[in-house]
């Protein structure tokens, strides 16, 4: 019934209709600038201005961590406490409902927030892996006006925030370049000392004045109880100045000490705590951030459509300008990739036309590709797969894979070429799925970009499977039916050619009869050509067991190691050894993203945001004079600032980024007292080899911060005896953005403090009052809420001399000098206090003058020795870094797992385990081509090279399966004595489709090969596939027949 209804014409019309709908739905597909991986994580971010990392950790981070630890399905807690704020990252199980967890965390934050200190911001929840330091607005506006900045902010909030509120694809709107006003109270420390008033009394008196009182309650006639509330005092400046701080008895009665007697009260603008600038323009900026998972291009268009008419409501002399638009960068990247896809599309169609010399086939293939892409949009939306400029590159590569299915259908429609088509197509798709599933076993950081590529290829393969089987089959039946009849009628005219073909078959059989006699030598030769991993065996095997002794007296013998091992390594290592040697010099992990330069500047604790802003403003002025830069974005908060420099597409892979980085490093030497970290990421910084002096890092963890520092110092002292160990650093930054700062340490003498009758908290409270400003409350004035900030009049001039020598008045009878009861010195401290599962982290780093392998062995021995004496509750381990990516041989065991899985698919398809086992050999033999092309060409090998192994496994196995299926099909209908003839006839029939499929994939790789080694991931993937596919042709058409050949004939 269904077959009679779905005629070829109706089937084609049905597919075309669905494809048109799919192309329309492409507008709903998420399009991002950079790749991302969705993790089961939630980030909580908070600010605590003008406070050190230790105070942030003690007063906020620890409190929040303790509250969050009660949440179920929580796997890990990570936190970072930095100057002026911190963040906590919560990792949940894969089965956890992240939306519900977000609701739970919000509830916990509301419960804990009243316990946080004054001045702490309300913690914000951010989903996924987004980092506030790295997050960029999708569009940024600057506003210029001849009025104070806080007035501009009021106008912007009133006009634009209300207009943008209905947009669901906006995450938040930030207004930078301005701060609200505050009530500043500047007291004179000498006056309050003379009146025997300390800062605690002063703070308490001011807070009580603004605190409403509830003296009692009254009962109504109905029996209801109503509380009596007394309003706060006069909130005018005159009223605040007359706050009574203390009453002092005298001869003429009580003398009232008012606030104006010891302090100055005024309303002024807050000192900026955060700066955000684009291209160095210092103005009031409106930064609009998009939600994670939203289409940035459509979101930006929607924002512009609202802002454009809304800006007409701005007052006169207000100017609104677009400063940054992420959609422009995104559209440039999309344009490049669409051009690349178009070139690939044209190359493939030109190739097909040259081979078949028939426009019907070209039309069928072009229509099938367009229909497949239309169907792909349904799958992208259904599986929530996002597109970005890197996954679009994957679509170009997948064109070659799509066309394989179509070529199988075309060849299957020819006379005498029939195969179980759906089984072949489905096996190919299954092989691809199994191969690319190996990416799921990669570390999370390495999945970024590659996972989206795998989704694109797999979904494209599934889409093309159904399109090829149903649509291509039917359109070919309409376009080429007359041609098939002509072919059938002209078969008799080709008998002479058939006789020639029989002659060639007989000669080929004779040749393979000769080669098959040398099966075992050929197999041994191939094993040695591939390579045995004997060269990876260690020089010595540590241990006291009998097998350790046996190894050390044979393969570990000194004579064998010096005289014999170099020869045997070369003899048995094969291409695998050459590949690994190239890997050690031209291999490693490379960042998947745009070329960028990060300039991170840190000032020591005690410096202000304004001071750092002056330094970075000078650096911005220098950057603006450099040519070849697309834009640069500056973020400054507390004592830390970041400048992110981006480059145009045509400059990303040139030497310009490295040249500019060198100039910036030289320029940074102009500023003393600033700690700089300038580094580059992306394609422009991915060509360096691994020739630097090896750097090792040891991660130490413990629950006591101070004791952990002592243990770290002990370990550093233990390893310094080795003359090859250099530059030992305790409290080394865990991440690149963590810069270790010099900090002053005030070491208090507890016995001397006890004699005076004071304690640490009281003393530190007085010192803090002299050096820092403190938010002690808030009040409402003229219908606006203002924070109350208390500070010493000369706090900005607070110095080491004043700290150690000034008399501190703790009470009327107690005055001390800090220098008499403390030791004050400078040391290297952590700019960020990091914790994992509530354990503090301290990193000990050092460089090793020698080979990395010897350094790693030395460090393993030292760690094992230190663990014997380390205190309970502390641990240490060597950090695994990305620069050891190419030494991680565990990835290559994934290939063995993949070969086993592909053996199962072949066995199911063929129903013959013996031939399936022979097919499994073709995959590692095809790897020889990958080894050769990387070692001979000395091409850079990154994570894309490993993906080439995965794709090659699927393709080589599929090609071998097609040949084997046809051989077995032929053997079923002919006597066993004709089995070898069936092999030759199959090769004669199938060489064309396999060669065409191989060349079509190579054509789809052409645009990536043209861009050279600077193309991260795609060039190693492409060049690896080129070598592997060429070797695969040799394996399938020469070696596979030899191993299938039967001697009995």
Instruction: Please state the structural category.
Output: alpha+beta
Shape: globular
For the record, the CATH class of the domain at 508-533 and 573-586 and 889-1049 is Mainly Alpha
* Whole-angstrom Rg: 36 Å
Write down the overall mean pLDDT. 79
Let me know the number of strands. Answer: 30
What's the architecture of the domain at 508-533 and 573-586 and 889-1049 in CATH terms?
A: Up-down Bundle
Question: Would you identify the regions where 5 or more consecutive residues have pLDDT less than 50?
Answer: 130-134, 482-500, 687-691, 881-887
CATH topology term of the domain at 508-533 and 573-586 and 889-1049: Multidrug efflux transporter AcrB transmembrane fold
Helix content: 40-55%
Count up the helices: 33
Description:
Among the domains are: 1-29 and 358-483, no CATH class; 39-128, Alpha-Beta Plaits, CATH 3.30.70.1430; 508-533 and 573-586 and 889-1049, Multidrug efflux transporter AcrB transmembrane domain (Multidrug efflux transporter AcrB transmembrane fold), CATH 1.20.1640.10; 596-681, 2-Layer Sandwich (Alpha-Beta Plaits), CATH 3.30.70.1430; 695-884, Multidrug efflux transporter AcrB TolC docking domain, DN and DC subdomains, CATH 3.30.2090. Helix content is 51%, strand content 20%. It is built from 33 helices and 30 strands. Strands 1, 2, 3, 4, 20, 21, 28, 29 and 30 form a nine-stranded antiparallel sheet that branches. The chain is globular and about 135 Å long. Residues 130-134, 482-500, 687-691 and 881-887 have low confidence and may be disordered.
